[in-house]
Please model this.
Amino acid sequence: MALLNLIEPNEATGKVAEVYESMIKGMGFVPNAFKVFSPSPHLLESQVKNLFYFSSHKTLSGKLLALTRLLVSTDEFCEYCVGMNTGILMQYGILPEQLTEVKKDPSKAPLDEKELALLLFVLKVVKNSNGVTKSDVDAVRAHGWSDADILDATFHGTAQVGTDRIFNAFKIEKEG
Model:
């Protein structure tokens, strides 16, 4: 049971009700991953806007983003996000055995060279942001990534750390 009082769709009013309604139209339900933000309508709306932004990103693939979330969440011991992103990645055709291997060695992620370079860069930022150098950024640029892409991917990975910690702290449960 979550440690915060989460607002259920049938209890929602105002901005929370508006956001929930758009989620139900788009996804068919409101995941607990979003309900956790319901006590703060501003944060809930921000999370949903980020979801829609990244889910329709022009250059960062859904597979790259899900692998980023999975690997960050694995390090953060966030069972909710590991489970959710494992399911997403299985929809991309990645087998559980492959995911076990990728968790041990992210350089084995089933991505092309360009996406793999960006994934490994983001993981470096998450693990040791002070260790990032100009040559690290230049190496990612050399794979054809724009600064906007690099920043978006890095934001996505670093934001996942905070999200994982919120989910862990407030004991967010899996759906079902």
Remarks:
- The CA atoms of residues 6 and 36 lie 6 Å apart.
